[in-house]
TrEMBL record:
The modification 4-aspartylphosphate is found at D60. Residues 9-126 form the Response regulatory domain. InterPro entries: CheY-like_superfamily, Sig_transdc_resp-reg_receiver, ST_Response_Regulator. Coiled coil: none annotated. PANTHER family: TWO-COMPONENT RESPONSE REGULATOR, TWO-COMPONENT RESPONSE REGULATOR ARR22. This is Response regulatory domain-containing protein. Keywords: Phosphoprotein. Transmembrane segments: none annotated. SMART domains: REC (SM00448).
């Protein structure tokens, strides 16, 4: 039986369905008791954020239309009191993108596919 009382919520924002599946598999492999809410774009994520009250956000940078930095900017503007930890990832990580993400409060920046890093971060934030 799954304990839903202590279940954590993850908001996973990525337009790539395969990437979302990869993170879901990392969650299952590490037996994390969490609910994963998925958003395929920034607009959808901004609608889901207040409804889901996530404990952790995994955020892709590169998406069609608005990107991960746009999400962070909107989040900080609309919810300045939010302290939700954010893991930012992308195959394209320039110095500018990294600095911008960190200045917007990202706690970790990783490359997609970093299984060991994803597992470590999930355990760190979800116990």
């Amino acid at each position: 039986m799954i304990n839903t009382v202590n279940k954590k919520r993850l908001l996973l924002i990525d337009d790539d369905r395969d990437a979302r599946t990869f993170v879901m598999l990392a969650l299952c492999k590490n037996a994390v008791n969490c609910e994963c809410v998925q958003a395929g774009n920034v607009t959808e994520a901004m609608k889901l954020f207040p409804k889901t009250a996530p404990d952790l956000i995994f955020l892709d940078y590169q998406m069609p239309g608005l990107n991960g930095l746009d999400f962070l900017t909107s989040l900080r503007k609309q919810y300045p009191e939010s302290t939700v930890p954010i893991v930012f990832y992308s195959a394209v990580l320039t110095t500018y993108i990294k600095q911008a993400a960190l200045s917007l409060g990202v706690q970790a920046i990783i490359r997609p596919g970093a299984v060991a890093t994803i597992a470590r971060l999930i355990k760190e934030y979800f116990g």
